[in-house]
Design brief:
Elements lengths: L1 E4 L8 H15 L4 E5 L5 H10 L8 E4 L5 H8 L4 E5 L6 H7 L4 E6 L3 H4 L2 H14 L4 E6 L9 H12 L4 E2 L8 H8 L4 H4 L4 H24 L1
Helix pairs in contact: 1-10
The structure holds adenosine-5'-triphosphate (ATP) and magnesium ion (MG).
Adenosine-5'-triphosphate (ATP) binds next to helix 1 and helix 8.
Length: 222
Protein backbone atom coordinates (compact mmCIF):
# COMPACT_ATOMS: atom_id res chain seq x y z
CA UNK A 1 0.00 0.00 0.00
CA UNK A 2 1.31 3.43 -0.93
CA UNK A 3 0.24 6.05 1.59
CA UNK A 4 0.93 9.65 0.65
CA UNK A 5 0.85 12.24 3.40
CA UNK A 6 0.57 15.42 1.44
CA UNK A 7 -0.93 18.86 1.15
CA UNK A 8 0.44 22.24 0.32
CA UNK A 9 0.18 23.99 3.66
CA UNK A 10 3.45 24.12 5.58
CA UNK A 11 3.47 22.89 9.15
CA UNK A 12 0.14 21.07 9.00
CA UNK A 13 1.78 17.95 10.44
CA UNK A 14 2.55 15.90 7.32
CA UNK A 15 5.99 14.70 8.43
CA UNK A 16 4.79 14.16 12.00
CA UNK A 17 1.91 11.94 10.82
CA UNK A 18 4.04 10.06 8.28
CA UNK A 19 6.64 9.24 10.96
CA UNK A 20 4.18 8.20 13.65
CA UNK A 21 2.07 6.08 11.32
CA UNK A 22 5.26 4.39 10.03
CA UNK A 23 6.24 3.39 13.57
CA UNK A 24 2.69 2.23 14.34
CA UNK A 25 2.65 -0.08 11.31
CA UNK A 26 6.18 -1.37 11.96
CA UNK A 27 5.91 -1.90 15.72
CA UNK A 28 2.29 -2.73 16.34
CA UNK A 29 1.15 -4.21 13.01
CA UNK A 30 4.49 -5.99 12.44
CA UNK A 31 4.53 -4.74 8.86
CA UNK A 32 7.49 -3.86 6.66
CA UNK A 33 7.59 -0.10 6.16
CA UNK A 34 9.58 2.33 4.07
CA UNK A 35 9.32 6.10 4.26
CA UNK A 36 10.06 8.03 1.08
CA UNK A 37 11.16 11.51 2.08
CA UNK A 38 10.36 13.75 -0.88
CA UNK A 39 10.83 17.02 0.95
CA UNK A 40 14.05 18.90 0.12
CA UNK A 41 13.93 20.18 3.73
CA UNK A 42 14.66 16.54 4.75
CA UNK A 43 12.61 16.73 7.96
CA UNK A 44 11.94 13.01 8.02
CA UNK A 45 15.49 12.06 7.04
CA UNK A 46 16.72 14.12 10.01
CA UNK A 47 14.22 12.32 12.24
CA UNK A 48 15.54 8.97 10.96
CA UNK A 49 19.08 10.08 11.73
CA UNK A 50 18.12 10.95 15.31
CA UNK A 51 16.28 7.62 15.50
CA UNK A 52 19.33 5.65 14.34
CA UNK A 53 21.30 7.13 17.24
CA UNK A 54 19.05 5.36 19.72
CA UNK A 55 19.58 1.58 19.58
CA UNK A 56 16.37 0.98 21.55
CA UNK A 57 14.24 2.26 18.66
CA UNK A 58 13.23 -0.13 15.87
CA UNK A 59 14.86 0.77 12.55
CA UNK A 60 12.60 2.42 9.99
CA UNK A 61 13.87 2.40 6.41
CA UNK A 62 13.89 5.74 4.62
CA UNK A 63 15.02 6.96 1.22
CA UNK A 64 15.02 10.37 -0.40
CA UNK A 65 13.24 10.66 -3.71
CA UNK A 66 12.60 13.70 -5.88
CA UNK A 67 10.90 14.47 -9.17
CA UNK A 68 9.27 11.80 -11.32
CA UNK A 69 9.06 9.14 -8.65
CA UNK A 70 6.07 7.19 -9.91
CA UNK A 71 8.01 4.10 -11.04
CA UNK A 72 10.28 4.17 -7.98
CA UNK A 73 7.23 4.07 -5.72
CA UNK A 74 5.60 1.27 -7.70
CA UNK A 75 8.66 -0.94 -7.49
CA UNK A 76 9.27 -0.16 -3.80
CA UNK A 77 5.65 -1.09 -3.15
CA UNK A 78 6.48 -4.61 -4.35
CA UNK A 79 8.95 -5.02 -1.49
CA UNK A 80 7.22 -3.38 1.47
CA UNK A 81 3.81 -3.73 3.09
CA UNK A 82 3.60 0.06 3.37
CA UNK A 83 5.43 2.76 1.47
CA UNK A 84 4.72 6.04 3.23
CA UNK A 85 5.49 9.17 1.23
CA UNK A 86 6.23 12.42 3.03
CA UNK A 87 5.84 15.22 0.50
CA UNK A 88 6.86 18.70 1.55
CA UNK A 89 4.60 21.67 1.54
CA UNK A 90 4.75 22.56 -2.14
CA UNK A 91 2.73 21.60 -5.16
CA UNK A 92 5.63 19.89 -6.92
CA UNK A 93 6.32 17.04 -9.30
CA UNK A 94 6.94 14.48 -6.53
CA UNK A 95 3.57 15.29 -4.95
CA UNK A 96 1.69 14.83 -8.22
CA UNK A 97 3.71 11.72 -9.16
CA UNK A 98 2.91 10.19 -5.75
CA UNK A 99 -0.78 11.04 -6.12
CA UNK A 100 -0.82 9.20 -9.43
CA UNK A 101 0.04 5.89 -7.71
CA UNK A 102 -1.06 6.30 -4.08
CA UNK A 103 -3.67 3.98 -2.59
CA UNK A 104 -4.52 6.53 0.08
CA UNK A 105 -3.75 10.24 0.28
CA UNK A 106 -3.93 11.68 3.76
CA UNK A 107 -4.10 15.47 3.91
CA UNK A 108 -3.53 16.98 7.35
CA UNK A 109 -5.35 20.23 7.88
CA UNK A 110 -5.22 22.51 10.92
CA UNK A 111 -8.59 23.97 11.89
CA UNK A 112 -7.46 27.43 10.75
CA UNK A 113 -8.97 29.51 7.97
CA UNK A 114 -5.71 30.02 6.06
CA UNK A 115 -5.12 26.30 6.03
CA UNK A 116 -8.64 25.39 5.03
CA UNK A 117 -8.47 27.88 2.15
CA UNK A 118 -6.05 25.41 0.48
CA UNK A 119 -8.75 22.72 0.34
CA UNK A 120 -10.21 23.75 -3.07
CA UNK A 121 -6.79 23.54 -4.70
CA UNK A 122 -6.17 20.13 -3.13
CA UNK A 123 -9.55 18.95 -4.38
CA UNK A 124 -8.62 20.18 -7.86
CA UNK A 125 -5.31 18.29 -7.83
CA UNK A 126 -6.92 15.16 -6.45
CA UNK A 127 -9.63 15.06 -9.08
CA UNK A 128 -7.02 15.46 -11.86
CA UNK A 129 -4.95 12.62 -10.38
CA UNK A 130 -8.02 10.42 -9.97
CA UNK A 131 -8.30 10.30 -13.75
CA UNK A 132 -5.07 8.29 -13.91
CA UNK A 133 -5.42 6.66 -10.48
CA UNK A 134 -9.11 5.90 -9.96
CA UNK A 135 -8.47 3.54 -7.00
CA UNK A 136 -7.00 6.39 -4.93
CA UNK A 137 -8.81 7.26 -1.70
CA UNK A 138 -8.22 10.70 -0.22
CA UNK A 139 -8.99 11.86 3.29
CA UNK A 140 -8.53 15.08 5.17
CA UNK A 141 -7.45 14.70 8.77
CA UNK A 142 -7.85 17.65 11.13
CA UNK A 143 -4.65 18.14 13.15
CA UNK A 144 -3.31 20.20 16.05
CA UNK A 145 -6.81 20.91 17.32
CA UNK A 146 -7.32 23.15 20.34
CA UNK A 147 -8.42 21.08 23.32
CA UNK A 148 -10.39 23.78 25.15
CA UNK A 149 -14.07 22.75 25.21
CA UNK A 150 -15.19 26.18 23.99
CA UNK A 151 -13.13 25.65 20.81
CA UNK A 152 -14.88 22.41 19.83
CA UNK A 153 -17.03 24.33 17.33
CA UNK A 154 -13.92 25.17 15.33
CA UNK A 155 -13.10 21.51 14.85
CA UNK A 156 -16.63 20.68 13.74
CA UNK A 157 -16.64 23.66 11.38
CA UNK A 158 -13.28 22.65 9.89
CA UNK A 159 -14.59 19.14 9.26
CA UNK A 160 -17.74 20.51 7.62
CA UNK A 161 -15.85 22.87 5.33
CA UNK A 162 -13.43 20.11 4.28
CA UNK A 163 -16.31 17.70 3.66
CA UNK A 164 -18.04 20.30 1.48
CA UNK A 165 -15.35 19.66 -1.15
CA UNK A 166 -16.57 16.11 -1.54
CA UNK A 167 -13.48 14.58 0.06
CA UNK A 168 -13.69 12.17 2.97
CA UNK A 169 -12.84 13.66 6.39
CA UNK A 170 -11.61 11.27 9.07
CA UNK A 171 -13.49 11.28 12.37
CA UNK A 172 -10.15 10.81 14.14
CA UNK A 173 -8.12 13.97 14.76
CA UNK A 174 -4.98 15.03 16.59
CA UNK A 175 -5.05 17.62 19.35
CA UNK A 176 -2.18 20.08 19.84
CA UNK A 177 0.12 18.26 22.26
CA UNK A 178 3.77 18.92 23.10
CA UNK A 179 4.52 15.20 23.03
CA UNK A 180 4.46 15.29 19.21
CA UNK A 181 7.23 17.87 19.09
CA UNK A 182 9.19 16.30 21.96
CA UNK A 183 9.11 12.79 20.48
CA UNK A 184 10.18 14.03 17.06
CA UNK A 185 13.28 15.64 18.54
CA UNK A 186 14.47 12.24 19.83
CA UNK A 187 13.69 10.40 16.60
CA UNK A 188 10.84 8.65 18.37
CA UNK A 189 7.12 8.27 17.84
CA UNK A 190 4.50 9.27 20.40
CA UNK A 191 3.77 5.55 20.90
CA UNK A 192 7.36 4.97 22.00
CA UNK A 193 7.41 8.02 24.29
CA UNK A 194 4.11 7.21 25.99
CA UNK A 195 2.48 4.00 24.71
CA UNK A 196 -0.79 4.50 26.57
CA UNK A 197 -0.91 8.26 26.10
CA UNK A 198 -3.61 10.24 24.34
CA UNK A 199 -1.39 11.13 21.38
CA UNK A 200 -0.50 7.47 20.83
CA UNK A 201 -4.18 6.61 20.66
CA UNK A 202 -4.81 9.48 18.24
CA UNK A 203 -2.24 8.02 15.83
CA UNK A 204 -3.64 4.49 16.16
CA UNK A 205 -7.17 5.79 15.54
CA UNK A 206 -6.14 7.74 12.42
CA UNK A 207 -4.23 4.82 10.91
CA UNK A 208 -6.94 2.27 11.75
CA UNK A 209 -9.71 4.48 10.39
CA UNK A 210 -7.79 4.95 7.17
CA UNK A 211 -7.29 1.19 6.75
CA UNK A 212 -10.95 0.54 7.54
CA UNK A 213 -12.11 2.88 4.76
CA UNK A 214 -9.93 1.03 2.30
CA UNK A 215 -11.34 -2.31 3.40
CA UNK A 216 -14.93 -1.04 3.25
CA UNK A 217 -14.45 0.19 -0.31
CA UNK A 218 -12.79 -3.00 -1.46
CA UNK A 219 -15.81 -4.95 -0.16
CA UNK A 220 -18.12 -2.62 -2.06
CA UNK A 221 -16.25 -2.67 -5.36
CA UNK A 222 -14.61 -6.07 -5.14
N1 LIG B 1 -0.82 17.33 16.92
C1 LIG B 1 0.22 18.10 17.11
N2 LIG B 1 0.38 18.77 18.27
C2 LIG B 1 1.42 19.59 18.47
N3 LIG B 1 2.40 19.80 17.60
C3 LIG B 1 2.31 19.16 16.43
C4 LIG B 1 1.25 18.27 16.11
N4 LIG B 1 1.45 17.78 14.87
C5 LIG B 1 2.60 18.34 14.42
N5 LIG B 1 3.12 19.17 15.35
C6 LIG B 1 4.32 19.98 15.27
O1 LIG B 1 4.16 20.96 14.28
C7 LIG B 1 5.38 21.19 13.62
C8 LIG B 1 5.18 21.02 12.12
O2 LIG B 1 4.87 19.66 11.90
P1 LIG B 1 5.42 18.92 10.61
O3 LIG B 1 6.87 19.17 10.44
O4 LIG B 1 4.99 17.50 10.71
O5 LIG B 1 4.60 19.67 9.49
P2 LIG B 1 4.71 19.51 7.91
O6 LIG B 1 3.34 19.59 7.38
O7 LIG B 1 5.50 18.30 7.59
O8 LIG B 1 5.52 20.81 7.51
P3 LIG B 1 6.27 21.10 6.10
O9 LIG B 1 5.20 21.58 5.17
O10 LIG B 1 7.25 22.15 6.46
O11 LIG B 1 6.88 19.82 5.64
C9 LIG B 1 6.40 20.23 14.21
O12 LIG B 1 7.15 20.90 15.18
C10 LIG B 1 5.52 19.16 14.85
O13 LIG B 1 6.14 18.57 15.96
MG1 LIG C 1 7.25 18.03 6.46
Amino acid sequence: MILLVGGEKGGSGKSCLAQNIAVYFANEKHATVLIADCDPQRTTSDWIQARNNDPKLVTINCIQLYGKIRNDLLSLNEHYDYVIVDCGGQDNLALRASMSVADHVLIPMRPKRRDIKTAPHMEDMLSTCKMVNPKMIASFVITQCPSLPNQAGRIIEAKEVCASFGINVLDSITYARNIYDDSEEKGASVMETEPDGKAANEIRAIADEMLAIKQELSYEFG
